[in-house]
Amino acid sequence: MLPLAIPNEEVVAIEHVILDFNGTLAVDGKLISGVVPRLEALSSLVTVHVITADTNASARSELASLPCTLKIIGRDKQDQAKLEYARSLGLGRVLAVGNGRNDGLLLKNAALGICLIQQEGAAVASMLAADIVCVDIKDALDLLLQPHRIVATMRN
Ligand SMILES: [Mg+2]
User: Fold this and answer.
1) CB proximity list for 74: less than 8 A, separation 6 or greater
2) For the chain, which residues make up each domain, given as ranges?
3) Rounded to the nearest whole angstrom, what is the distance from the C-alpha of residue 90 to the centroid of ligand 1?
4) What is the pLDDT of residue 36?
5) Which CATH architecture has domain 2-154?
6) Fewer Cβ atoms within 10 A, N terminus or C terminus of the chain?
């Protein structure tokens, strides 16, 4: 469990982290350097989930040795599919990370949503739906491993 204690707000107990794959954990279908050790560390705190349209058909092989669950979604209503997956876990216990248009509902409805820019860019609607925007996945995962950074960003 990852407690987020933002001043003047209820403490949020994050139990699940849901990540998009392409544009988030990977570029051109390949895991981004530095992701593996961070996901391994994160998996000792929370359950790690990857949900993806798998544009490059590489998610299963790239993630094979990592401590995470993988959900590959279909062609249609991908934003709804991602949201429903998070809802099944309990939205109030989910922190979500993504970059695409199909991550927008997930980022908006999760307890905390982080939108990434990286090499693929971010869908503007998804960026506006998120709570935090990071340039790089390594920075986003380091926020989770050093949650005082999130507190500093989110306090008011
Ligand atoms: Mg993406």
Assistant:
1) 81
2) 2-154
3) 22
4) 97
5) 3-Layer(aba) Sandwich (3.40)
6) C
